[in-house]
Amino acid sequence: MLSAAPIVILDEPTSSLDAATEHQLCGAIARLCRQRAVLIIAHRLSTIMQANEILLLEQGRIIERGRHTDLMKRQGAYAKLWTMSYGEQTIGLPQAANQ
Description:
The chain is α+β, with helices and mostly antiparallel strands. The protein has a single domain (7-98), classed as P-loop containing nucleotide triphosphate hydrolases (Rossmann fold, 3-Layer(aba) Sandwich). The protein has helices at residues 19-33, 45-48, 68-74, 77-86; strands at residues 7-11, 37-41, 54-58, 61-66. The strands form 2 sheets. Strands 1-2 form a two-stranded parallel sheet. Strand 1 (7-11), helix 1 (19-33) and strand 2 form a beta-alpha-beta unit. Helix 3 packs across helix 4. The model is unreliable at 95-99 (pLDDT under 50).
């Protein structure tokens, strides 16, 4: 990130972080994304919910793709994962969940 690379790949950047630190890091990642292309690999959906495009993989295949709000509206696999992880509420999560 310090070298201002045009493309950055982050693999599980929020794993092993507490919720407060994850929230801070997500803000930093959002600022990073404004200036370059960023590929984030994550299991925590809150880490990627502000992404321009989310790809949900199952057994190496893309089963859903889109923005967080669109995927939630579809009520498919992504929405089921979100509900299992966070329930219906978005309190305490980045604002993108409410867009």
